[in-house]
Amino acid sequence: MTLLISRIARIDRVPLAAAMAGAALALLVGCVSEDTAGSGSVQILVSGGAALQQGFPLTEDGEELSFVDGWEVDFDKYVVAIGSVEFRDPESGAVEASWPSTAVVDLMRNAGSAQVVAEVQDVPSRRVNVGFATAVARVDADVVEADAADVAEMASSGWSLLVEGVATRAGVTVPFRVGLAASATYERCANGVDGTLGVAVQAEKTTQIVLNSHVEHLFWDSLLSDAALRFDAWASVAGADGVVSSEDLATQDLFALRNAAGDALVDSAGDPVIYDDGALLSAGQTNLARFISLAAAISFHLNGEGFCTYSLVP
Amino acid sequence: MRMPHHCITDHLGHGAPLASTHSIDGRRAGRSTSYHLLLTHLAQRSSAAYRLGRWWRDSCANLLVALSVAGAGWAGWAGCAETPGEYTQFDLQLQPHAGGAAATAPFTTASGWTVELHSARAALGPLYLYGAEDISPIAAIWRQTLAELSPVRTAHAHVSVDTRPIVGEALVQGALDAAAASGSDMGTHTAIAGSCATAELGLYPAGSIAVATPGDATLLDALDGAIIALTGVAARTSPGDGSTQTVPFSARLMPDDLPTSITKISADFEMSADTNRIAFRVDMKAWLDAVDFSTAASADRADAEGYRAFEIGSPAWLAFRHGVQSARSYEVQAEE
Which of A256, A307, A311 sits opposite B315 (nearest CB)? Predict the structure, then answer.
């Protein structure tokens, strides 16, 4: 503004209206390349990151992710239903472009590497807010990169996530196959690459965004802070077939966690194991299945660790 | 390890949005004149400043339009003294109750226990009030940046960006005492006139920040480091044999047992430009609704007064903590 005023002061012999118009035109031309230089495309990828590829424990960026109760976990399937990607004007909130469809993708496919689910054309080449949603899987989803039987089971069970794997500790193996109703909408995502809000779409180029699922959320013991990864509460309720299912997890009361013998669940120091949902679950929903569903529903991030504003869908 | 710090709006079927969670930024709180309130004030009072900020980021093609609007806005600001956005004050009252009745009267919990509180004390505050409308994303980022640079904990010293304007804050700690039927005074505080939507309650060690009134210090000292301490007796009649189980109980929550704040507390009222009397209502029945008192410590472990403690990690303690953390246990209302 100071610069503009000084420019006007120096051209005081020119009629004021012409000066204003000239200055505005000069600034307009100077800014065109930043905001209104056409459009580009945005390629949408989904990924479960190194955790899915390597399992836990995992060292990533110098940070170790391991279970405090000594379990090791590997994954066989991690099927997510995701879509409804929107690119919005940061100021007005108007949708500039979108991919309104849904993809059901097993993130373990493609060797666990990021998978392209769609490419949106004609996105204005400017900074846009990014939003998306997880939803109950549909057998007629626009993109299906998962076993048809799994997708059908997810659809009929109302699941948006299916995770299958095996946990091991001291020679004990506990397989799990858990479907979760973990639908949520994600809005106004921060960009995990540079910490900015949304993404800057490049003109005449393809800009990639990666919707990252943080698998470790499923094993958190707190939704507030200082979360540790635990599996004891899962292993304690394995069914008669030895496999942990969603139904089994629903029997684990967060107010009275039990071990396999039915006694209070304690850690290696003899202290009670505590899961803290921060009262996000209502009193009648305080079981481990609901806790994990909530943790999973907020497990997606933009471009690594970019946080979004989440709204849970019943 | 990645930590959970998300802004969550929950619609799990309880009818009301649930609490947000934020990253814990340490149990710090401070007395300060909040620049956030000032920012909100400017944003609401001065449409010119707000539009100028948007212009800064928008296309230069909007320059002349923005300048015109800015000029009109400044002119409007100068002549508009009674619109929302004007600084005002509110008197805050901390009011305990049990399902709407006096907190000292017996009440029946959702799990069927009849409870009579013998004592109930808590250190509650600061209290932050948020408006209904989102502020612009740019303002939100600016606010977050300021908050992270701040040496004191003000309303937005969170990792998450809250995009609603702050319309009032009481940067003090009040002493809740169930025996004080009329509630306790939390002082007079600055606010901005307009619609209020939600509130956030800070939970800090008793006495770690300014007390609302000098008399509160004694009550807070009695908490002996806890944030909340209750004693009482709970009774339940078995539907089977008609026998009655009676449990004298004590329950305490320490700072490390709780998050530093409880968000999305209902606060649906208008902050007027004149005098405001605001009640911060705390429902002790909601704190205890899900507690199974039979899981308190066994009788042989009762204290000298016969109270059986909610031991850490026990079902009673977990359900009590859940009730205290729930935004549904609190409400902020304007009083006539």
Answer: A256
Contact B322 A27 (CB under 8 A): no
A99 close to A85: Cβ distance less than 8 angstroms:
yes
Mark yes or no for CB contact A35/B58 under 8 Å: yes
Q: What is the model's pTM?
A: 0.76
DSSP string, A157-199: HT-SEEEEEEEEETTEEEEEEEEE---EEEESPBPTTT--BSE
Set of chain B residues whose Cβ sits within 8 Å of the Cβ of A313 = 11
pLDDT reported for residue A35: 52
* Cα–Cα separations (whole angstroms), residue B81 to A158, A307, B87, B124: 54, 40, 10, 35
Tell me the per-residue pLDDT of A216-272, one tens digit each, with 9 for 90 and over: 999 999 988 779 999 999 999 999 999 999 999 999 999 999 999 999 999 999 999
Q: How far apart, in Å, are the Cα atoms of A298 and each of B5, B10, B134?
A: 10, 11, 22
Q: State pLDDT tens for residues A278-294.
A: 999 987 899 999 999 99
Instruction: Name the helix (H) or strand (E) containing B121.
Output: strand B114-124
Question: What local confidence, expressed as pLDDT, does residue B92 receive?
Answer: 96
What is the rounded average pLDDT for all residues in chain B? 75
Q: What residue ranges of chain B have pLDDT lower than 70?
A: 1-84, 133-163
Using one digit for the tens of pLDDT, what is the confidence trace for A107-121?
999 888 999 999 999
Partner A contacted by B213 (CB < 8 A): no
Average pLDDT, chain A: 89
The chain A residue lying nearest B322, using CA atoms, is A279
Given an 8 Å threshold on Cβ–Cβ distance, is B61 in contact with A31?
Answer: yes
Strands A206-213, A39-47: pairing is parallel
Tally the residues of chain B.
336
Going by C-alpha positions, the residue among B192, B314, B200, B181 that lies closest to residue B253 is B314
B64 touches chain A (CB under 8 A): yes
Nearest by CB to B5, which of A225, A256, A295? A225
Shortest CB distance from A314 goes to which of B6, B13, B319? B13
Distance from the Cα of B280 to chain A's closest Cα (Å) equals 20
**A52 Cα to chain B: minimum distance (Å):** 16
> Any bridge partners for residue A120, and if so which?
A42
* Residues B24-45 pLDDT 10s: 223 433 323 354 455 455 455 4
Number of residues in chain A: 314
